[in-house]
Amino acid sequence: MRSIAPYQPGKPISELAREMGLDEAGIVKLASNENPRGIGPRTRAAIEAALGEIARYPDGNGFELKQALAKRYGVDMASIVLGNGSNDVLELVALAFLGPGRAAVFSQHCFAVYPLATQARGARSIVVPAKDYGHDLEAMAKAIDDETYVVWIANPNNPTGTFARRDAVEAFLRKRAGARAGGARRGLQRVPAAGAARRQR
């Protein structure tokens, strides 16, 4: 545990302004998945509509949200996992599949939580050199060994913003599915932007 470096969150605008002697109003923060334009009117309306029930615990299973997502994306509700942010889901994946004697494959310049979640479970990290600051899917496929239980893929990649095309990701998954049938270990993917693949059509 002592060897695990703590996660460094994005610096608040107020802190940066103090350190650099800047006006907060002139700073636009592009990190931490924050929207400098603020929330949209439909989001604000949904929040205001929910305020009346804020004193009660929500449905921990997220039935209505899962139902809406399943309908929108044409998937079974049982295949949807909800979490308190992506970190929560990533840690659940690591908890379920990683441990001593197992390994995870991820790219250089990857999302900071991947190595942290892997190391926290006592698993081995297999870091594949990046290709133009993005995922080298062919090299990642070759790096998978018999101890690999998880393959972390962020698409678009965080923090570099590179994007692997849908056909490339699907080809990678098909290749791994075939290898798994031959005895290789299972692999998992993470695609945080569900609409990213559709936007390139």
Report on this structure.
- With 201 residues, the chain is mainly alpha-helical.
- The chain has two domains: 46 residues, no CATH class; 110 residues, Aspartate Aminotransferase, domain 2 (3-Layer(aba) Sandwich), CATH 3.40.640.
- The chain is 38% helix and 7% strand.
- The protein is built from eight helices and three strands, in the order ααααβαβαβαα.
- A three-stranded parallel beta sheet has the order 2-1-3, sandwiched between helices.
- α5 links the parallel β1 and β2.
- The longest helix has 16 residues.
- The C terminus is likely disordered.
Shape: globular
Main sheet characteristics: 3 strands, parallel
Q: pLDDT average, as an integer?
A: 84
Top-tier CATH class of the largest domain = Alpha Beta
CATH superfamily of the largest domain: Type I PLP-dependent aspartate aminotransferase-like (Major domain)
Number of helices: 8
Write out the strand line-up for the largest beta sheet, numbering strands in chain order.
2-1-3
CATH topology of the largest domain: Aspartate Aminotransferase, domain 2
Structural class: mainly alpha
Helix content: 25-40%
Low-confidence stretches: 181-201
Radius of gyration: 19 Å
CATH architectural type of the largest domain: 3-Layer(aba) Sandwich
Q: Could you give the count of β-strands? A: 3
How many structural domains can be distinguished in the coordinates?
Answer: 2
